């Protein structure tokens, strides 16, 4: 319980909208299974293979996908 003026409510709505927007922007750069970020950092990605769905562009850690590492295209079952 807290006293909220109109200004506070506007700020709150703006913060929520911004958070949602940022979350949806980041979605394509995150693993859809464990939500780890797909970092463009060679040192961190060295031992991690990523694979992207050709339909929706969602990224997955290859360990979560039963798909040949050498295949050129990947479409997840949900797509
Ligand atoms: Zn993952
Ligand atoms: Zn997909």
In short:
The protein is built from 2 helices and 2 strands. It has 79 residues and is mainly alpha-helical.
Question: Average pLDDT value?
Answer: 76
Relevant CATH superfamily of the domain at 28-79: Zinc/RING finger domain, C3HC4 (zinc finger)
CATH class of the domain at 28-79: Alpha Beta
Strand order of the largest sheet: 1-2
- What percentage of residues falls in helices of 4 or more residues? 25-40%
Q: Which H/E pattern describes the elements?
A: HHEE
Please give the count of helices: 2
CATH architectural category of the domain at 28-79:
2-Layer Sandwich
Give the overall shape: elongated
InterPro entries: Znf_FYVE_PHD, Znf_RING/FYVE/PHD
Topology:
Elements: H1 6-26, H2 42-45, E1 50-52, E2 59-61
Antiparallel strand pairs: 1-2
The structure holds zinc ion (2 copies).
One zinc ion binds at residues 53, 55-56, 58, 76, 79.
Would you kindly provide a written description of the structure presented here, covering whatever features stand out?
This protein is mostly helical and 79 residues long. It has a domain at 28-79: 2-Layer Sandwich (Herpes Virus-1), CATH 3.30.40.10. The chain is 32% helix and 8% strand. It contains two helices and two strands; from the N terminus they run ααββ. It has helices at 6-26, 42-45, and strands at residues 50-52, 59-61. Strands 1-2 form a two-stranded antiparallel sheet. The chain is elongated and about 60 Å long. Bound molecules: zinc ion (ZN) (2 copies). One zinc ion (ZN) is lined by residues 53, 55-56, 58, 76, 79.
